[in-house]
Specification:
By secondary structure, the protein is of the alpha/beta class. It has 36 helices and 32 strands. Helix 9 runs antiparallel to helix 18 and helix 9 crosses helix 25. The radius of gyration is 40 Å and the shape is elongated. The structure holds one RNA strand.
RNA sequence: GGGCUUGUAGCUCAGUUGGUCAGAGCGCACCGCUGAUAACGGUGAGGUCGGAGGUUCGAAUCCUCCCAGGCCCA
């Protein structure tokens, strides 16, 4: 308009351009648009540390007598840097702690580490070997050597605990990092022994043979991780085991017509195959697969039982003729062979055919030589069939005296040939040849390893606990009825694992761990009672488990008297022993399986620190770990607690899935698809990483890719900008102590009502650990309800109204509540950003620690009652947006402020509401609706009359850019609406 | 090989007990704003719900099998 350039207003403004800009209340805030998380999060951390946030929360809880809500951290292994799984796990735990804390509960969180165990010891031993120190250690006494290794292991664990603590703190987790629990702490070790003492008392601990990997060269047991596989030449033998009960054999193959006596002269036999002939003296059974098919066929002149599928293959090893079929006498299923018996080819005994599912048809004969003392599967089969765990091989790799005399004292490797020769001579060898295969070797000595049964300590799963049910039944009962599972399918999964788990082998033959406090006398009898364990526990509580290695049996048992211990074996009570005393005892050299230690944390941490009291029926509220812990920590914790107290240590179990790459594949260093936590933190900052965690469905596999963090970053920025916009419009606002009530007809009441609903939804989602739902509800609220609707609609009044107009102040009050409430709802997920915004809201400076969102609780519901008509208003708004968009597409208008929209008000509800609105607020509802659409004017019209009218010909307010029909030239020469004229103070 | 589990638009996910359940957000495309501006607003296109059978009047939703993943065992 030509008149604009000549108006006084324009000349009063700067230079030649007309402007009312400096008369507006434009947004202003110190809260930056760009978060700069990587740079700014450390400052938040420092501030929280300075105010001792964790301790302050505990103090606050004590002062306010908050209810305790106990949460228990499962200990990660003190080895290496934290990985994505840790990030996910620790952040989820932090969500739980923070959401419950903001609810007004007392939620202490003690982080822990699993410190003992093979991975560390192995790593330390490797370093000692490489540096040449290991050889020196081997010259020391057993106790001294172990102590030396243990010292190195402790240093190693401490180093990584420190490293991981720093990394976990970078994730902005709130925890008692000054007082973590470590499974190698004396008080933890002592408490572990206390639990063990209870298990011993309840008769659940026993000693039995079990095959382990054994290094003959070092006379020590080895773990899987200590094996290295190299090629080795061995003798592969196919051996006949002559059937004892020929009649039963004939019956199994449906050959009842044959005469057993006559048939027996043909020496009908089972054909087995093995690559370790030296284990044959320990053979106690032959295993078949119950569903496979077996044939009885002539091989090498004997009626031979062999898997149907392997018959031709094995027969061709020795017999070149192709007419195999003619030699077949009968067929049956493996199940039909069960219970048959055979004579050992050179030991004087008869053994049975048993069933085993692991029998395969890839190699051998389908009939598996089973030596329960010399193989893991053999052991299980032996157990299942009540066989002895027979192991005639001594620690030095020679046979003991239970084998035939021609083998006694012989080295097992030499025995391979001797046994083969004997089988040949006796006509029991069908075929043999040397072949090369991959075979496990000792990582240190590079010598071949064998499976050898050794005495181990076990916890019985099926034995009745004194005066009670057995652990398996107890565990199944409690996981069926008493424990909650998130997600629910965890129940089924864990119960399935409980149903099939074998007895728990508690012992390991290592140095870096908690010793099993058993004593042996010269005859091999052991002393292990509740009292002896408690006696040792006292020493351990003072000196740590090193005491076991530095103290003598007499010192360790000081204060213990076998004679008065009702549980002590008679041999230890006997007069003769009493005169010799504990000094004559030998200390056990076994340590506990590390799972036993971590499985005792409910007592060692939660009981001891007063956060739970299982014996008196106060278990922990929640354990939260990856779903692998259904078999791991959850299960071992359950078993130790049931064994010691009869009760489950937790009320609920929450599991998350595992991180996979963007294609859903497992992450591994060898595939090169791993992503480092350090890199994510450096690139995105903790709050964005946490925002990402909150966005995922953690129950299943979790895809991880940088692009997903980019998305999380974008989404974070939207929320941040909403907070920023709220803050920037509150710059000139101070909340009044007394809250006025919002007129229910006002838009502000509507948005606060929406906030109340969202707040309730978010808190309910937090309650059920549905962080994803909370995340998306918060996100949608910021974007949709606030950014697109409320903030867009109120911009005009905030900028253009008189600063202290009632309408503007009312909106500012609503915005204050929104900002305050949002900060608190966001705080569990975005601790840094929420606190940054919260502090900005209160305008406290960097050093000021008087305000901290983490010390608040969620805002109570705001006392408003929005007019029910707002639902219709918002629907009409959406419909009108379509009308507007169509007009824009038809080029009726470009800028919405050039438009008057005729809004369809079919039932007159809007018009009716307009009256209530005007009465309550003193403002025009048409103008309010125009703001909701971002247009200049609105009219309510009847059905079918919705349209857009262009207002380009009407004068435009130079201040608010509206064409609301009141624009005219004012006393200062500017063209203004009535409202703007009043705001500027011109007539 | 077994137990549990996952597979819905390019991406992340909603879809209670089978019947407007084919949805949301991001991304993308187009438009607007330029007084939230390394921002903001509006509109739109996109999927035979891993595959194949089956039950049913009707299935993403129940059953069977298969394919591709994950955890734990063997």
């Amino acid at each position: 308009m030509s008149s604009e350039s000549s108006s006084p207003a324009s000349t009063q403004a700067q230079g030649d351009k007309p402007s009312y800009k400096q008369t507006l209340n434009l947004p202003k805030t110190a809260f930056p648009m760009r978060a700069n998380l990587v740079q700014n999060e450390p400052a938040s951390m420092k501030r929280w540390d300075g105010m001792r946030l964790y301790d302050t929360l505990r103090q606050l809880s004590a002062d306010e007598r908050r209810d305790l809500w106990s949460f228990h951290d499962g200990p990660p292994y003190a080895n290496g840097s934290i990985h994505l799984g840790h990030l996910l796990n620790k952040v989820l735990k932090d969500f739980v702690v923070r959401t419950r804390t903001m609810q007004g509960l007392d939620v202490p969180y003690v982080p822990g580490w699993d410190c003992h165990g093979l991975p560390i010891e192995h790593k330390v031993m490797t370093e000692l070997v490489e540096s040449g120190k290991a050889a020196k250690l081997d010259t020391l006494s057993d106790d001294d050597r172990r102590m030396a290794v243990r010292r190195e292991c402790r240093k190693y664990a401490e180093k990584f605990i420190k490293l991981q603590t720093g990394q976990m703190r970078q994730l902005l987790t709130v925890a008692d990092y000054d007082h973590p629990y470590l499974t190698m702490q004396p008080e933890y070790e002592a408490a572990t022994l206390e639990v063990f003492a209870n298990l011993v008392e309840h008769g659940l601990v026993y000693r039995a043979l079990k095959p382990v990997h054994w290094s003959i060269a070092n006379q020590t047991a080895l773990a899987e991780a200590e094996l290295e596989y190299y090629d080795r030449q061995d003798l592969s033998v196919y051996v006949w085991f002559e059937v004892e009960d020929v009649a039963a054999l004939l019956k199994a193959f449906g050959l009842a017509g044959k005469d057993p006596k006559e048939f027996a002269d043909l020496k009908p036999s089972l054909m087995i195959w093995t690559t370790t002939p030296w284990t044959l003296p320990a053979n106690l059974a032959v295993a078949v697969h119950p569903r496979y098919e077996y044939v009885l066929a002539m091989m090498g002149g004997r009626p031979t039982v062999i898997a149907a599928e392997l018959y031709a293959k094995v027969k061709s090893l020795r017999e070149k003729s192709s007419a195999h079929g003619a030699a077949e006498l009968g067929r049956c299923k493996g199940a039909d062979l069960l219970g048959l018996t055979y004579r050992h080819p050179f030991c004087n005994r008869v053994s049975p055919v048993v069933s085993a599912e692991y029998v395969t048809l890839e190699d051998g004969t389908g009939l598996v030589h089973t030596a329960p003392g010399h193989g893991a599967e053999d052991f299980q089969t032996g157990h299942a069939n009540g066989l002895d765990i027979y192991c005639p091989v001594r620690a030095d790799g020679t046979y003991d005296d239970t084998v035939p005399d021609w083998l006694r004292g012989m080295d097992i490797w030499k025995a391979n040939e001797v046994i083969a020769k004997r089988l040949e001579d006796d006509g029991a060898m069908y075929f043999s040849h040397t072949f090369t295969h991959s075979y496990p070797h000792d990582w240190r000595g590079k010598t071949p390893v064998i499976f050898r049964a050794t005495e181990q300590w076990f916890a019985a799963v099926d034995k009745p606990r004194a005066g009670d049910l057995d652990l398996r039944t107890l565990a199944l009962d409690q996981t069926r009825d008493d424990v909650k599972f998130y997600p629910e399918w965890g129940r089924n999964r864990m119960r399935g694992m409980l149903e099939s788990r074998p007895d728990w082998c508690l012992s390991r033959q290592r140095a870096w761990g908690l010793p099993i406090p058993a004593f042996f006398d010269a005859d091999g009898n052991y002393l292990l009672t509740r009292r002896t364990v408690m006696c040792v526990a006292e020493k351990v509580r003072v000196k740590g488990s090193d005491a076991w290695f530095t103290m003598s049996p007499a010192q360790l048992l000081e204060g213990y008297d076998a004679a008065s211990d009702p549980d002590a074996p008679d041999s230890f009570k006997a007069q003769a022993w009493q005169s010799v005393g504990p000094e004559s005892l030998r200390k056990s050299s076994d340590i506990f399986d590390v799972w036993f230690e971590s499985g005792c944390s409910w007592h060692a941490v939660m009981d001891q620190r007063g956060q739970a009291d299982l014996a008196n029926g106060k278990p922990v509220e929640l354990y939260l770990e990856g779903s692998d812990q259904h078999r791991g920590w959850f299960q071992v914790s359950l078993l130790t607690a049931l064994g010691a107290t009869g009760r489950a240590p937790f009320k609920a179990l929450l599991t998350h899935g595992f991180t996979v790459d963007k294609d859903g594949k497992k992450m591994s260093k060898s595939l090169g698809n791993t992503i480092e936590v350090e890199d994510l933190l450096k690139k995105y900052g903790a709050d964005v990483c946490r925002w990402w965690v909150a966005s995922i469905n953690f129950e299943g596999d979790i895809k991880v890719d940088y692009s997903l963090f980019d998305v999380a970053g974008e989404s974070y920025r939207k929320v941040r900008n909403t907070l920023r916009f709220l803050l920037s419009n509150l710059d000139d606002y101070t909340p009044l102590d007394q809250r006025e009530t919002m007129p229910g007809a006002s838009l502000d009441a509507w948005v606060l009502g929406e906030y109340n609903r969202v707040s309730q939804e978010v808190r309910a989602a937090y309650d059920r650990y549905d962080f994803r739902a909370a995340h998306s509800t918060l996100y949608d609220f910021c974007n949709d309800t606030l950014s697109a609707v409320y903030l867009a609609a109120t911009k005009d009044r905030l900028y253009c109204d008189r600063p202290d107009s009632m309408r503007r102040r009312r909106t500012q009050r609503a915005m204050w509540e929104l900002c305050d409430g949002l900060c608190r709802l966001l705080a569990p997920i975005l601790p840094h950003t929420a606190d940054e915004a919260y502090r900005s809201l209160w305008k406290v400076d960097a050093k000021d620690t008087s305000r901290c969102v983490q010390l608040t609780t969620y805002l109570d519901a705001i006392d408003v009652s929005a007019d029910a008509a707002w639902t219709k208003v918002m629907a009409a708004r959406e419909a009108s947006q379509q009308t507007l968009e169509a007009a824009r597409a038809a080029q009726v208008i470009e800028n919405p402020l050039d438009a008057e929209v005729h809004v369809q008000d079919a039932d007159g509800a809007l018009a009716a509401f307009a009256t209530r609105f005007a009465d309550a607020t003193g403002d025009s509802f048409e103008a309010e609706f125009a703001d909701l659409l971002g247009v200049s004017r609105v009219k309510f019209v009847g059905p079918g009359a919705a349209r857009v009218v262009a207002l380009a010909d009407e004068p435009r307010c130079e201040r608010s850019w509206k064409r609301d029909g009141t624009v005219k030239q004012r006393s200062d020469g500017g063209w203004l609406t009535d409202r703007d004229a009043q705001a500027v103070g011109v007539a």
